[in-house]
Design a protein that fits this description.
The chain is α/β, with parallel strands linked by helices. It has 2 domains: about 100 residues, no CATH class; about 350 residues. The strands form 3 sheets. Strands 1, 5, 6, 9, 10, 11, 12, 13 and 14 form a 9-stranded mixed sheet that branches. It has a 3-stranded antiparallel sheet with strand order 2-4-3. A hairpin with a 7-residue loop joins strand 7 and strand 8. The protein starts with 5 loop residues before the first helix and ends in a 20-residue tail after the last helix.
Amino acid sequence: MQRREFIRLSGATALFLAMGGTGTSLHAATSIGARTVVNITLDGGPDFKHLIVPPFSSDADSYGAAYWRARASIFRSQASDTAKLLQAYRDNYDEVTFDGVRFGILKSCAWLKNEIRNGNVAIVSNVVASTNRDHYHSKLIMESGSLNTGPHDTEISGWGGRSVGTLDANAVAVTRGVRLVCNGDDPLHQKGYDNARVISNFESRDMGLYNYDTQADLNNGNRNYIWSSSAIMSRSLKSYYQAKANEVPEQSPYRKFIRHEQKLRAFGKRVEARLKAKPVPAQITALYEGSNTLASTYFGKQIRNLYDSFMTQDILEMRFASMEYTGWDSHRDQHRKIEPMFSDLFGIKKGLHVLSSHLGNTIYSNTVFVISGEFGRQLKSNGDNGTDHGRGNSVLVIGKSVNGGFYGDPFPSEEIARLEIKNEDIHGKTSMFQVYARVLNWQKSGLGTAVFDLSNQPVEAGVNLSSLMKT
């Protein structure tokens, strides 16, 4: 513990202000294992049609044949080379039949394949949120949960922040910065936000105010650190606030600073004590440190932060968590670029597999992961062995509380002709906000409709999203 970001914590965390001097929360009690939504944003427009594909087919008029012809260049093949395309399918994909659908899934995503077979994954197809193909604007729309969000509306609330406000709980951001999705409502300004219920937890093992321990440092044989600026400042501030606590009258406006310091210190001690008793599992540490890390050690560290957040869930009052994985804008060399990223998320002994195996059954059974990006990719590959910006996409909802299966046709026959046309999109038939709302309703009845305006938000014909979650 060598860094304590007082300003970050005080500015981003109202939990501290909602605590008494003993560290007791004034929010509604949240227990470890309370129903929690983890939102994972895949920045850049992930191509889920590369993750889950139709089986290769020799029937020239079938969807499987049209798909592999349209995307042949991604696998460094010609559309006419059926033997090479068949081999690419066999080399890269395991074939699965589930919920009446036969499909291929990347071999590097075996954990996801197992979760699909166990009925723990809902694949919602033909989903759309954005009205355009611009990354920045599309993310604002997706995370705010409103189609009325403009390209410059950065100071607004997000759907995750609004949900925890209704739940009287907190959102936890395990990312470097707090994403818009975590922003809460500002009751005084429609075009504003309030982060009173957001905890920034990117340094999960470095929470609270720094408290220099001279004796522990001496025990470690380090005598120089006693005179460092951090040690001197820590001792000075601690002594200062302790002295002022006995001098500043209760009615003084400066008493607020004294109480704030006490709450921060008490909170940090609670978190530190809990995590000291729960070391980070070696398999989680290996995701971001060592010789066999994830392709994105940043995502690996977020897994560590989320694990710690669940271990302190009752202290943090966490009911919503925000994660991110960047780099999905696969205009070039898509086969090489995004498959390691999919593996980071869904591979055996990789991100979500390692995390879920260490959360314990109670927590994992009451956790739902929602995985989506701001838009999808075009149906046909481009000339650089990749895919360009599209609109429609899929959303994955993962957890033991999910009624697994396909919601919407992943391989609609109407796309066969459009697969051959550059610049054609997956047609969006289901609003992404309808999917998010069903997940929030699982947390609390009516929560989704309280957070989203679902009027004029479509659902694909024949799709019953009301059965997405178990009661």
